[in-house]
């Protein structure tokens, strides 16, 4: 899988971008109105690093959280 962490399996997530127009009621307006909803993707912070696994040196894509937490051993 191209956009997945080799260690924890973290991958792409989807969400929405919500566009709102109007002045909030607290500021004297009639309220915010949703004028558009677009899909978006949240990508994991993947880094291509060289790791040691079972005595072999290999290149893998690993997320920054796994690198910082020490779940892998760098070559």
Structure in words:
Helix content is about 10%, strand content about 45%. The chain has one domain. It is mostly beta strands and about 80 residues long. The two termini are about 25 Å apart. Strands 1-2 form a two-stranded antiparallel sheet. It is built from one helix and four strands.
Tell me the major beta sheet: 2 strands, antiparallel
Helix content: under 10%
Number of helices: 1
- How many structural domains are formed by the residues? 1
How would you classify the helix and strand content by structural class?
mainly beta
> What's the Cα radius of gyration?
21 Å
Feature tags:
75 residues; two-stranded antiparallel sheet; single chain; mainly beta
Structure summarized in a few sentences:
The protein has 1 helix and 4 strands; from the N terminus they run ββββα.
Q: How do the strands and helices of this protein lay out in sequence?
A:
Blueprint (H helix, E strand, L loop, with lengths): L12 E9 L11 E10 L3 E8 L2 E8 H6 L6
Antiparallel strand pairs: 1-2, 3-4
């Amino acid at each position: 899988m191209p956009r997945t962490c080799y260690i924890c399996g973290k991958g792409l997530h989807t969400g929405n971008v919500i566009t709102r127009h109007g002045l909030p009621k607290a500021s004297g307006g009639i309220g915010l109105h949703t004028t558009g909803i677009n899909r978006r993707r949240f990508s994991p912070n993947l880094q291509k690093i060289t790791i040691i696994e079972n005595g072999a040196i290999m290149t893998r894509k690993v997320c920054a959280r796994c690198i910082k937490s020490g779940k892998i051993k760098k070559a």
